[in-house]
Amino acid sequence: MTREPEKLEFCGDGRLPSMGIDYWITAKTYNLCFWLSSEKSYLYLPIEPTTIVALYPSGYYEAYSTTCISGIEHYLYKVIGLSEDVSSFHEVALKDPLLNEFVSMYPGWRLRSTSMWWALVTGICQQNASFKQGWSMLHKIVLNYGYRVSIGGEVIPRPPQPREVLEEPSPLLESRVGYRAKTILNVAKYFTSGGSEIDLSSMKPVEVERELRSIKGVGQYTARLAIALSQRRYELPPIDRWLSKIIGFVYGVDEKYSEEYWVEKWGSWSALASIAVTIALDAEPLRKALERIRCGKLTPDPGLKQSPLNMYGFCSVINR
DNA sequence: TGCCAGGCGGGGT
DNA sequence: ACCCCGCATGGC
Predict the structure, then answer these.
(1) Which of A165, A207, A156 is nearest to A190 (CA)?
(2) Which of residues 122-181 of A touch strand C (CB under 7 A)?
(3) β-pairing verdict for A60-65 and A51-55
(4) pLDDT digits (tens, 9 = 90+) for A108-149
């Protein structure tokens, strides 16, 4: 699918306050490889019109959009979590055998949030698949749809919107997502019909989870991951087989009670802790992750070609 | 080759 | 409430 890139106009620049945030780690973690270069990262803001921010490690940023709107920095604050006080998360993490090394090494890491639509697609691609397979699917979806924007001399892929997927499913079906395609289409339908009327941000997380689970193919894990990734609300942890086994192994609790134990430990930070564990262990498959825990290798391995902190490797692997 | 992985829903008990 | 199975695809 070749489409003409949409030209975006420069909407201003600025510099985010330090606040102890490591903008580089924050921007590049779990970010698709074509939104990363060696010197900056691109972040799509979860708003209409299409708006993208080039963020540099220093916190300096430039914003581009089809139509410049006011308050862009406000949305950037939400995406980066600038008003999120993580000190109570760090307090628990520093005493935790799984996360203490990770937060000591990266105290400036924050979750980078996305739109609810894209958060759900992200979760669905993780269902019953390895980290590598799931993130390859996401890359392929973006490339197969072929939507792009141009800013200055650069051309940058952009993810498809729900309406675009619904009106033209074939690029999705060719993205090797298997039976997940149906679920993604269900989500696209949701956001182009009744779901668009519902203000998920005004609902309690348990209600949001129930609402999202009404979409066929979206279960507890996907719903909770999406709530964390798009709303920065962390009280409901996504706990998959991978994390459940890790919790059982590290804390010696029966897997049946892993969620109960996790929520008791992390409280309103439960989902953030779930995600942090995946970064600390480079999202390695279970067997390897357990081996890493046994060896005490609880910080990201810079040598890996594909990991949450090093997504560049996906660009050299994906070929449709 | 065959097995199975950051789920899920539908069918059974 | 559980338990169990099939499901697309790709990696090992």
Answers:
(1) A165
(2) 128-130, 132-133, 136, 176-179
(3) antiparallel
(4) 999 999 999 999 999 999 999 999 999 999 999 999 999 999
Q: Which residues are registered as beta bridge partners of A15?
A: A60
Number of H helices, E strands in chain A: 16, 7
Residues 138-167 of A with CB under 7 A from strand B: none
Q: What is the pLDDT of residues A230-287, one digit of tens each?
A: 999 999 999 999 999 999 999 999 999 999 999 999 999 999 999 999 999 999 999 9
- Sign of the Cα pseudo-torsion (A235, A35, A99, A94, in order): negative
Residue A157 sits at φ, ψ, to 5 deg, of -60, 150
Instruction: Break chain A down into helix, strand, coil percent, rounded to 5.
Output: 50, 10, 40
Q: How many residues does chain A have?
A: 320
With bands split at pLDDT 50, 70 and 90, how would you rate the model's confidence at A320?
very low
User: If you measure CA to C1', which residue is closest to nucleotide C8?
Assistant: A178
**Which residues contact residue A105 at a Cβ distance below 8 angstroms, ignoring those fewer than 6 apart?**
A299
Query: pLDDT, tens digit, for every residue of A168-226?
Result: 999 999 999 999 999 999 999 999 997 778 999 999 999 999 999 999 999 999 999 99
